[in-house]
Design a protein that fits this description.
Blueprint (H helix, E strand, L loop, with lengths): L2 H14 L5 E4 L8 E5 L1 H13 L3 E5 L2 E5 L2 E2 L4 E5 L3 E5 L7 E3 L2 E8 L2 E7 L2 E3 L2 H13 L19 E6 L2 E6 L2 E3 L6 E4 L2 E6 L2 E4 L8 E4 L2 E6 L2 E4 L4 E5 L6 E7 L2 E4 L4 E7 L2 E24 L4 E23 L9 E14 L24 E4 L6 E15 L34 E23 L4 E19 L8 E4 L4 E4 L2
Parallel strand pairs: 1-3, 2-4, 3-6, 4-7, 5-9, 6-10, 7-11, 9-12, 10-13, 11-14, 12-15, 13-16, 14-17, 15-18, 16-19, 17-20, 18-21, 19-22, 20-23, 21-24, 22-25, 23-25, 24-25, 25-26, 26-27, 26-28, 27-29, 28-30, 29-30, 30-31, 31-32, 31-33
Antiparallel strand pairs: 8-9
């Protein structure tokens, strides 16, 4: 999707909103800004009235507005002026459960809706989640408390919109959800612009989840999340998450920066990820996973900067359910500068990545398909990755003469560290076809016992201007194995 198309999309959405929409002061409906009065009924009445009158903006001025679940209706925009804070109730019983989720702000099958301004939506998720645990212990709420936490579906998200059209989320700050921060599910024409996300108050705090949507732009925003930052998902085999533009964002997470999956039933198509920064991120800066039978195709990553991350990119085909193999084709990753950390990149943040992945050697960027499901047509161009090196040979389980021992793990949850130890320190490619690498620079600070690049079952990989900088000398920076055809052009 070209930038001009995104601008056109914005124009179409704005033009579909009611012209000269009337502003309604929240105080007109008896909505209190004292932070203690529960305003759920008053806010909902205001939204209903504005929608019935043809639409407009419900404007919140300076103050704290306490509420439980509210439902946004067609042609209504919530305008949060600077200093206005919409505060979620800390009582879990003040939230409704719909379409498998709980949320502070719901919208189902609505159109021309938005949340705009310089104000804040504060879910108070840490307190809500802990109060929910208390209700579970008392037997009021039934939940197995897996990992000593309630299911994410019964903890309130800040925003959950499903089946909606023409959405604008602009300028606001979204903080402290009880579960995922904001989810847009089977929606069309969604603009997320200039928002601030502080989403690290509890477990599963994704920054934003785009699920089975069509025509979405996420631009000029900042995401700080305990879980995946910008996450695209496909929950239904009948939908494809497509035509998504992710531009000029900054992302920090204790999971993955920008991720497709893990839910990938229908798949992902026509995605552009341009000029983004990922930093202090525990897992991969970019992860694409096709593990539930869906597709990942026609993806462009350009101008990515990855600083102090655990991994740079991870492309994976899997088969979490028998007979449901994914497909991955036509992906371009270019103009990348990355620095991989020698220590835990998210150390000191509220909720860190899991310690069970440690200890291990630093994992390479990787492209890993399956023997009967190859990842195809991947272009890597103008990429520079700095690795700490210093791999510990005592952790090694696989040598270059026994690559068949790298487990397939088709049904496992896809993460870059899933194989524990890989035989390359820079780039590992397995079960792939049509790989083109141009102007790739791999820099290793300390000597590593592993080879820079390892290919296993790769059907034609072309390297043009590959530069490997590591202490000591090594005759073969690229090692190919088992039916791999490599064309190495040093020019």
């Amino acid at each position: 999707m070209k930038i001009s198309k995104v601008i056109l999309l914005l124009f179409l959405i704005l033009s579909s909103m009611p012209l000269r929409a009337k502003d309604y002061n929240a105080s007109m409906f008896g909505i209190k800004s004292n932070g203690t009065t529960l305003n759920t009924t008053s806010i909902q009445k205001a939204i209903d009235v504005i929608s019935e009158k043809g639409g407009g903006r419900l404007v919140f001025y300076v103050g704290r507005y306490l509420t439980g679940t509210i439902h946004l209706k067609s042609n209504v925009t919530i305008q949060m002026e600077e200093g206005a804070i919409l505060v979620g109730s800390v009582n879990p019983l003040d939230y409704e459960f719909m379409t498998g989720w709980t949320a502070l702000i719901f919208a189902h099958d609505q159109k021309n809706i938005g949340i705009t301004g310089k104000g804040v939506i504060d879910g108070q998720g840490f307190m809500v989640a802990n109060n929910l645990v208390d209700l579970i212990h008392k037997g009021v709420v039934d939940d197995p408390l897996r990992y000593d936490r309630p299911r994410e579906t019964i903890r309130p998200q800040n925003i959950y919109f499903r089946g909606c059209r023409n959405i604008i989320i602009q300028g606001i700050t979204l903080k402290d959800p009880g579960s995922w921060n904001q989810q847009y599910d089977q929606c069309k024409n969604v603009i997320i612009d200039g928002i601030m996300v502080d989403s690290k108050s509890y477990w599963n705090n994704d920054g934003i989840d785009i699920v089975d949507c069509d025509s979405v732009s996420i631009t000029n925003s900042y995401f700080d999340a305990a879980d995946d930052g910008i996450c695209l998902k496909s929950h239904s085999p009948d939908f494809i998450c497509q035509n998504v533009f992710i531009h000029n964002n900054t992302v920090r997470t204790s999971a993955n920066g920008i991720k497709f999956g893990t839910a990938s039933n229908g798949g992902f198509r026509n995605i552009k990820i341009i000029n983004n920064l990922v930093f202090d991120t525990y897992r991969s800066a970019v992860t694409f996973a096709a593990v539930d039978g869906g597709i990942v195709e026609n993806i462009i990553v350009d101008s990515l900067k990855s600083i102090n991350t655990g991994n740079v990119f991870f492309l994976r085909i899997g088969e979490r359910r028998a007979g449901k193999k994914g497909k991955m084709n036509n992906i371009s990753i270019s103009n990348v500068y990355a620095e991989v950390s020698s220590t835990k990149p998210d150390a000191g943040y509220n909720y860190e990545g899991p310690v069970e992945d440690m200890p291990r050697n630093i994992s390479p960027a990787s492209i890993t398909g399956m023997p009967d499901a190859l990842i195809e047509n991947i272009s890597l161009k103008n990429i520079e990755i700095h690795y700490p090196g210093g791999g510990n040979a005592a952790f090694a389980r696989v040598g270059l003469d026994e690559l068949d021992k790298v487990p397939e793990m088709a049904a496992s949850y896809p993460e870059f560290s899933m194989f524990k130890e890989l035989p390359a320190w820079g780039l590992y490619i397995r079960h792939a076809k049509g790989i083109t690498c141009e102007n790739i620079t791999l820099i290793c600070v300390k000597k590593d016992y592993r080879t820079a690049v390892v290919l296993d079952d790769v059907h034609v990989a072309t390297f043009k201007s590959l530069k490997v900088n590591e202490p000591g000398t090594r005759k073969l920076p690229v090692y190919s194995y088992k039916s791999s055809e490599v064309i190495l052009d040093k020019k």
